[in-house]
Amino acid sequence: MLFGHGSDIYKYQEPVIADFSSNVWYEGMQESLIRHLQDKVINIVHYPAPDAGKLSKKIADLHGLNHQNILVTNGATEAFYLLAQLHAGLNSYIVYPAFAEYEDACKIYNHKLHYVCNAEFHAKIPLRQHLLVWIGNPNNPDGKVTSKESILDLCKNNPDTIFIVDEAYAELCWKFDSVIYLVNKLNNLIVVRSLTKAFTIPGIRLGYMVAPVKIVERAKSVKMPWSVNTLAIEAGNFILADYYNLLPEKNMVAKESKTLQKELASIPGIKIHPSDCNYFLGSIESGKACDLKQFLLKSYGLLIRDASNFRGLNESHFRIAVQKQEFNILLVDAIKQWMNNNRACQNFTG
Fold this sequence. Notes:
Blueprint: E1 18-19, H1 31-40, H2 53-63, E2 70-73, H3 75-86, E3 91-96, H4 100-108, E4 112-117, E5 131-136, H5 148-157, E6 161-166, E7 189-194, E8 207-210, H6 213-222, H7 230-241, H8 243-246, H9 250-265, E9 270-273, E10 279-284, H10 289-300, E11 302-303, E12 305-306, E13 317-321, H11 325-349
Parallel strand pairs: 1-11, 3-4, 3-5, 5-6, 6-7
Antiparallel strand pairs: 2-8, 7-8, 9-10, 10-13, 12-13
Helix pairs in contact: 1-7, 2-7, 3-4, 9-11, 10-11
């Protein structure tokens, strides 16, 4: 899906003062990281390492794994396409609603697609053999979390099935337990991570795959050389040198998100799906999310995500990622105004 994602700020002439459609961390890139990249920009006169090997060793050290379990990628999305390519033609189950690139990658490589709603997905669900299962955890767009115990049970109950767990938002979800530590204990678990969300560098594209050694070796054999550019590698080096101090404070993330969820849920006609992440899913009782989006953009310069193109959702759904408090307050007031206007119009026409 080339153009159907959030943060489509590039489409609009109207000034955007707060982008609620992008679920990267709102405080932006650290000043220290900006200065580091400014200092390192001269290095773009040289080719980067073909596989970003040194950075993979630092990531391995962070997680207590062997560097052979790590493959650095051009964002998490490159990892999804590599995995789909490695398993071309197999059955793939996608737990939906989900990030569209799982499905798009599978379609390119002729996977036989099956879908299961995340509300019905559990450790004992019957699965066909010789397949992949794609799980967002925390899930995008609704922030749903699958427990590490459930993922462990899934892997053990289905030894011939490969489970791909997308943990792109792990650092932005309160009380989230990663399953990266299980990769060395299971031969059918792959975890994909992103460094762009929590550290606000989506334009650089930097992620990584954590997988059994044989899968990493196969992925390397088909991976395009130099897909991870010099500045992305330098950003990764800087982040990994002080990883925990550079992370957003999860309690603050959760508190701000919960406050915004509560305020929006109090608006008549708005339903909010509770989330422990910096983002969450909402729906309108009457009306279309695309109309709400246009109103917020044109009247207030606020951009939200119309979530109607996620499988399993409809035209009433929208996704919001928490922003600065002043903008959160403005958003609540603006949505109240739209809902009141919408209700008044319905009463008038009725």
